Amino acid sequence: MALKVLALAGDGIGPEVVNAALRVLDVAAKSIGLRIDLTEDLLHGAAWEKYGTFIRPQTLALAHAADALLVGATGGPAWDHIVVDGGPQEQDGLMKLRHELDAFACIRHARSWDALLEQTPFRADRIRGADIVVMRELCGGAMFTQTRGIETQADGSRRAFDLNEYSNNEIERFARVGFEVARRRRGKVVSVDKANVFIAGKLWREVVEEIGKAEFPDVELKHYFADNASYQMCCQPTVFDVILADNLFGDLLSDQSAAIAGSLGMLPSASLPDLPQAGRVRGTAIYEPVHGSAPDIAGQGIANPIGTILSVAMMLRYSAGEVDCAAQIEAAVDAALNAGNATRDIGGELGSGAMTDAIIAQFRAL
Ligand code: NAD
User: How far apart are CA 271 and CA 109, in angstroms?
Assistant: First the structure.
């Protein structure tokens, strides 16, 4: 089998972490006889500098033809102020890709690592064993709405708005992927909303409940208000398995979950256009670390590559169906950390390259 991969390193530390992850992908794929057909291209700021656009039509065509995208990060002070014609998806090459590929189901995985318990703001006994997937709806809600703007009122005051809207179809398809992910893990879902305040939250709760009862009766479902979910994630993170959240709450809760892992640099993600029951993804999925382009440390070779390396593990799991190989990469990361290897953000001194060497060595030894 061959996997068509398009690597889009993007901006800031993007190239550093993507190069590291591609090295791991090469070693892992060879170990199982999986051919990787790799293409690389520019995205967002890097594309703007060369072509004057955040993403070229050619890049979109390459993306549609690929099984999986490996993205580094996009953005930075040189481009964050640029406004181009069109909706929110036109303002960022990565948003455009998520929109075009309809990669609506974002899986963000945070777990505690025994070697990093002391690097977190939590007491070790509170977070040991925590392993949480925050599922973020990625193509709807206030972040993608076309109903947005700033209006000047008759009295000269200004009024700004971004409509938080969800249809039952958007919620249904997202809930299905979320329940399927839970079924493949520990079979527990907490759906998050503000049904006590927002009408969109009431529909969210109703639809998730319907899908759970009708199609996933074997998966345990609880509903939490988003503020309580955030609180409980601090107080008792080990009780969570899969959290279902809309675009905004998912953005917040997934960064919060990074505190359990010890650094934002540790978190991988997969953004899927579907996830059939017990099968691999049909269509193009996007794999990327949760962190941004970290302009403050870009170009220094000190970025933590683990979030991107774990994103490659997710790629093998969801797009190639190579579950054992994915688990081997995750075990290699764990073993490398347990052997005392660490980048600066997690209390060590290693650069991105040396951290990657340590993970590859552990992968080969397993
Ligand atoms: P950020 O995630 O880039 O950085 C936040 C902090 O975490 C910084 O101190 C940074 O040094 C650190 N950090 C992040 N990743 C790290 C890693 N792998 N290793 C070590 N330290 C790491 O967030 P920000 O500073 O708010 O945003 C910077 C730029 O990134 C902005 O232009 C923003 O729009 C963009 N951004 C992009 C994405 C994405 O591409 N998916 C996500 C978030 C932010």
Answer: 12
- At residue 177, the 3 state secondary structure works out as helix
How would residue 88 be classed by pLDDT, with cut points 50, 70 and 90? confident
List the residue whose alpha carbon is closest to atom 27 of ligand 1: 292
Token output for 191: 């759906």
Give the residue whose CA is nearest to atom 42 of ligand 1.
Answer: 292
* Mutation choice for ligand 1 from 54, 267, 291, 356, CB with most ligand atoms inside 8 A: 291
- Only one residue has tokens 């070697």, namely 115
CB 272 within 8 A of CB 184: no
- SS3 state at 164: coil
Given a cut of 80, whether residue 211 has pLDDT beyond it is yes
Q: Report CA(360)–ligand 1 centroid distance (Å).
A: 25
What is the mean predicted confidence (pLDDT) over 53-72? 97
Q: Cα separations (Å) of 62 from 9, 56, 65, 66, 188? A: 14, 10, 5, 6, 37
Q: Is 80 in the pocket of ligand 1 (CB under 6 A)?
A: yes
**CB contact set of 163 (below 8 Å; sequence gap of 6+):** 142, 145, 147, 148
pLDDT exceeds cutoff 90 at 56: yes
Give the model's pLDDT for residue 31: 98
pLDDT tens for residues 189-203? 999 999 999 999 999
**267 CB near ligand 1 (under 6 Å):** no
